[in-house]
Design brief:
The complex is a heterodimer. Chain A has one helix spanning 57-67, and strands spanning 2-6, 12-31, 37-52, 55-56, 74-77, 85-98, 103-113. Chain A has 1 helix and 7 strands, in the order ββββαβββ. In chain A, 10% of the residues lie in helices and 63% in strands. By secondary structure, chain A is mainly β. The two termini of chain A are 27 Å apart. By secondary structure, chain B is mainly β. Chain B folds into 4 domains: 8-145, no CATH class; 150-239, 3-Layer(bab) Sandwich (Phage tail protein beta-alpha-beta fold); 270-334; 422-651, no CATH class. Chain B has 11 helices and 37 strands. In chain B, helix 3 packs antiparallel against helix 4 (208-217). The longest helix of chain B is centred in the middle third of the chain and has 15 residues, at 318-332. The radius of gyration of chain B is 29 Å and the shape is globular. The model of chain B is unreliable at 408-419 (pLDDT under 50). The chains are: A mainly beta, B mainly beta. Chain A binds chain B through residues 26-28, 30-34, 36-43, 115, and chain B through 15-21, 44, 109, 112, 253-260, 343-345, 360, 362, 381-385.
């Protein structure tokens, strides 16, 4: 499992294979008159699509609150990110897993580096 | 075009590169340290920046959008004293942003995968903040380059520049800058002297930039802030626009631009016959020089314009007038293709760059060489664009030349079909003012020029004569110099003539020309008992009451009439020395564009006459023996309408 802290939450347990890193290019792009694709780049930002291990309902609810806070960006850190990073958070899924004796939730979310 | 290394040229011509914006604001007006708004307090506050320049705008300008606040304690709003950004290390007030602070906008273009270093940044704009607006978030700043200072600061008193043997034009410009600014802080540079000499002329009160550009127009040059590679900064430069340049600064293929929002030809601003009327120092009367482009006339028909120089113009010889007229003709005789271009960020562009646009087989099938008349950079995180407006060749101005023309420039011959030229002759009507006002201090209480000129209320008395005498007068008088004092001046007189033009001159008419004639009331009606070169001129006046000048006796209730006379020449200046010494002789004054513009189509046209030293607020050398200077002429009460002041107008 990878180690991650989002905002004021405690460590979030990410499932093995539950992390995917993308890069987002910030800049301008257009087609020139002859069709040539032209682009310019201001910055390259990282984005992570993450899936937790099944969490207890209490921990999942805390994470839910953290991810949906209107105060953006949030301070994030952990081995997974390679250090402290300010990120915009986006909740993408909240999946309860119910069995006869337990109740767990798998949370999926996206972190986008703010600058 | 600003110089590029080969690597920079290759990068900008490539299909992909990195763009990084930096905006810095001077920490306070007394320091040369700057806040970098892209890193201030650990945040990037810059949302976007637009920088623009145009051949007619004369100054570059910028608009900057900034994040107003990042948290409750971090705000750029200059009225948030509780913001940590507006405090110094001791908690005292130290605004991050304020008007009159210098702002610099820079951009680095580097390979897409690279981060810029400080030397990668190119300064796009340097100027002062004119306005901040924190009403919305993001907040907005607007700024102009240092040329804005020259547009805002006035030459506050008239002064003579040039010498009889001629002073280099760039030297005269520097003298004007130093005198008007009261310092030598701004140095005018010129790559090579134009070799144009200025003979004595009277510099009027006007914004510094107007004065400099008027001189530059004499030789068709430009004077403005421009990038100096040697200085590594924008400096005030006098330079030719490069009208004859045929070598493109750069070539653009269809892979370089996105679109042509405009590609057009318009003959509206063609002028192929240019007449310049100027006060000749040789003949001491108004002369005309006309230059024409036969090729343009053959192609587009004759399109004539006239430019009338004021009586104190620095253009006072036929050769100077020819240079001036030719510069206007060169800029206006051909209609040129006008092309708008939207393209990827291209920071080296400058006004009058000549660019080659290769054929794209849609808009044109042969390359076009066009010069930049305006450009704008639009930069933000996700927008890196440059737009340009281009025309056929480099020039110093377009709109400004047209604006210099006399009102007849507005004529479009197609609109004149069927119209009849009208004319009118006006005398001061019996119920309107036809008089003069004198600020009179008398021999025993002679005073300073400032007191006498500005209408100081300490006058012994002010005299106003209206409809009671047969003479009108303007001029001044001085007494013998008092020992150790400059309180020499005894009086100044100003004449008023009101003509009821309303209802006769049609409201929608174009006034083509006009003159004011007055008649000498005695032998040697013009006196010049000290000083040299004095003249009289028609001006405007604004009286308290159009029907009567205020009472002639103290208290000094009519000071408003005395100070209501205008400071702009409405006509040529007539030298007192040229006024015939015989009685009942006509002395004509020909109205210039300002004078014609002052003619009322609805009511009273209020004209006045002032002595040249009076209208210029420039006293002649203090006379040692005293005497008077001025001109007396018949009023409408002289008994003969033939000798009354007359306003003659011709209109369409």
């Amino acid at each position: 499992m990878s180690f991650l802290i989002v905002g004021n939450s405690s460590a979030v347990a990410i499932a093995p294979g539950g992390s995917k890193l993308d890069t987002i290019e910030i800049g301008d792009r257009h087609r020139a008159f002859d069709g040539t694709y032209r682009s310019s780049v201001t910055d390259t930002l990282r984005a992570w699509d993450l899936t937790t291990v099944p969490l207890t309902r209490t921990i999942a609810n805390t994470l839910y609150t953290t991810l949906t806070t209107p105060v953006q960006p949030s301070s994030c850190s952990g081995d997974l990110l390679g250090g402290p990073v300010d990120c915009f958070t986006k909740l993408t899924g909240f999946h309860p897993i119910v069995s006869d004796s337990t109740h767990r939730v798998v949370v999926t979310f996206r972190l986008e580096e703010s600058s | 075009m600003r110089p590029l290394t080969t690597a920079e040229e290759d990068l900008l011509h490539g299909a992909r590169f990195g763009v990084h914006l930096k905006v810095e604001v001077e920490k306070s007006s007394s320091t040369s340290a700057y806040h970098d708004l892209t890193t201030l307090g650990g945040n990037n506050w810059v949302v976007s920046a637009r920088v623009r320049d145009s051949v007619d705008q004369r100054v570059a300008s910028a608009d900057i959008s900034l994040v107003r606040e990042a948290s409750s304690s971090e705000s750029l709003s200059p009225l948030r004293m509780d913001s940590t950004l507006n405090q110094d290390s001791t908690g005292g007030t130290s605004l991050a942003i304020d008007v009159a602070r210098e702002v610099k906008i820079s951009a680095a273009t580097v390979a897409a995968s690279c981060s810029p270093v400080s030397t990668d940044y190119n300064l796009l704009f340097r100027g002062d903040i004119d306005e901040w607006d924190a009403g919305e978030n993001p907040m907005r700043l607007s700024a102009r380059d240092p040329g804005g200072l020259l547009m805002d600061r006035w030459i506050e008193s008239t002064q003579t520049y040039g010498t009889s043997s001629g002073t280099a034009i760039e030297v005269v410009m520097q003298e004007i800058l130093d005198d008007a600014l009261g310092s030598t802080d701004i140095a005018l540079t010129s790559s090579a002297s134009p070799g144009f000499l200025i003979t004595p002329y009277n510099q009027r009160r006007e914004p510094i930039q107007n004065a400099l550009q008027t001189l530059a127009d004499l030789i068709g040059y430009m004077v403005r802030y421009r990038w100096s590679t040697a200085s590594g900064d924008f400096t005030l430069q006098l330079y030719p626009p490069g009208r004859s340049n045929t070598t493109p600064h750069s070539t653009f293929t269809a892979s370089r631009y996105e679109s042509f929002p405009r590609l057009s030809v318009n003959r509206e601003n063609i002028r192929n016959a240019v007449a310049v009327r100027y006060p000749s120092s040789v003949t001491e009367q108004e002369e005309v020089v006309t230059v024409e482009s036969s090729c343009s006339i053959a192609h587009y028909g004759r399109q004539w314009m006239s430019i009338t120089e004021p009586g104190d113009s620095a253009i006072d010889t036929s050769s100077e007038a020819s240079v001036f007229a030719t510069a206007a003709l060169n800029d206006l005789s051909e209609p040129d293709v006008e092309q708008g271009v939207g393209m990827h960020f291209y920071w080296p562009v400058e006004i009058n760059d000549l660019y080659n646009w290769e054929a794209n087989d849609v808009h044109y099938d042969a390359a076009q060489s066009l010069a930049v008349v305006s450009w704008e950079h639009d930069l933000s995180k996700d927008r890196h664009r440059t737009s340009m407006e281009l025309r056929g060749k480099a020039r110093s101005a377009i709109k400004d030349w047209i604006d210099k023309g006399d009102p007849i420039k507005l004529l479009n011959f197609r609109s004149l079909i069927g119209k009849v030229i009208g004319e009118g002759m006006f005398l001061p009507s019996s119920d309107n003012v036809d008089g003069y006002v004198v600020n009179y201090f008398g021999a025993s209480s002679a005073t300073t020029w400032a007191n006498i000129h500005d209408g100081d209320t300490g006058a012994a008395f002010l005299l106003a004569a209206d409809d009671t005498g047969t003479t009108l007068a303007c001029g001044g008088a001085a007494y013998s110099t008092l020992s150790g004092s400059d309180e020499t001046w005894g009086n100044i007189g100003r004449a008023a003539m009101l003509f009821n033009t309303g209802g006769t001159v049609p409201r929608n008419s174009i006034i083509l020309g006009g003159s004011v004639s007055v008649y000498t009331d005695a032998t040697d009606a013009a006196a010049q008992e000290f000083g040299t070169g004095a003249s009289v001129v028609i001006c405007g006046c604004s009286l308290t009451d159009n029907t009567n000048m205020v009472s002639t006796t103290p208290p000094l209730g009519f000071i408003a009439d005395y100070t209501g006379f205008g400071t702009v020449d409405y006509s040529n200046r007539v030298l007192l020395a040229d006024i015939p010494g015989t009685v009942d002789t006509e002395v004509p004054f020909y109205l210039n564009a300002a004078g014609l513009a002052a003619i009322s189509r609805d009511g009273i046209s209020s004209l006045g006459m002032r002595w040249s030293a009076d209208i210029d607020d420039s006293p002649p050398a203090r006379p040692s023996s005293g005497g008077s200077i001025g001109f007396d002429y018949w009023s409408a009460e002289n008994g003969s309408s033939n000798l009354s002041p007359k306003l003659a107008l011709v209109y369409l």
